[in-house]
Amino acid sequence: MSKLSVIIPAAGSGKRMGTETPKPFLKVGGKPILQHTIVNFVGLPQVSQIIIAASSENFSEVESICSSFTQKVNYFVIVEGGSERQQSIENAIQKVGDDIDLVAIHDAVRPFIRASLINKACEVAEQVGGAVIGIPSKDTIKQVDEDLIIKLTPDRASLWQAQTPQVFKTELLKKAYSAASNFVGTDDASLVERIGGTVKMIEGGPENIKITYPFDLKVAASILEGNHE
């Protein structure tokens, strides 16, 4: 079985949420969102390492969350995140073990990813190099200019909304980040695509939400309540 390192960038702010507390540390169902997210990876047999990139002022909170997983505490690594997500991932990659075959990158505020999808992404990444969880776009997408004038309506049939985790062979991901230089990608897959790597889309589900706005907190609480029924 391939060994998997999971990178969770958790250095984001709460600006769009309208709170001073960074989103990963807001509570849903009495626990921080980050804790709910980590639960999905702890215990998977292929996971050898979980690396969390966070702002230094939140290290104690991350340590507290990690310590709640007493049986797995030894494989947590905490690194300082950067001002941008890509920098946080780059810092975390430096801590990936030499014996790691695959790296999964997962948003700290996507707490409802299913183990079956994580496993599927790992299988596909082993085969082709990279895999991204996503869902077909249900809305028509418009491309606009700086004045918000619509210039293009792409065919929705070929458009997907990328989610996480995004899983890659370790060597391929490291190569992509090394080649990025001053290029800033919209996600990790875009960096791999840029160097010619193959990344395959895997259909996920609508429950794999990214908690970004206050309304998302209500949706998350509802999903959590449903999972416990």
Sheet having the most strands: 7 strands, mixed
Residue stretches low in confidence (pLDDT < 50, at least 5 long) are none
Shape from CA axes?
globular
The strand order across the widest sheet is: 5-4-1-6-10-7-11
Distance between the termini: 34 Å
Annotation, overall tally of beta strands = 11
> How large a portion of the residues is in β-strands, by DSSP E?
15-25%
Q: Whole-number average pLDDT?
A: 92
Q: What structural class should be given to the helix and strand makeup?
A: alpha/beta
Percentage of residues in helical conformation: 25-40%
Radius of gyration: 17 Å
Order of helices and strands: EEEHEHEHEHEEEEHHEH
How are the SSEs placed, and which strands pair?
Layout: E1 4-9, E2 27-28, E3 31-32, H1 33-39, E4 47-54, H2 59-67, E5 76-80, H3 85-93, E6 102-105, H4 115-128, E7 130-136, E8 143-144, E9 150-152, E10 160-169, H5 170-180, H6 188-194, E11 199-203, H7 214-227
Parallel strand pairs: 1-4, 1-6, 4-5, 7-11
Antiparallel strand pairs: 2-3, 6-10, 7-10, 8-9
Helix pairs in contact: 5-6
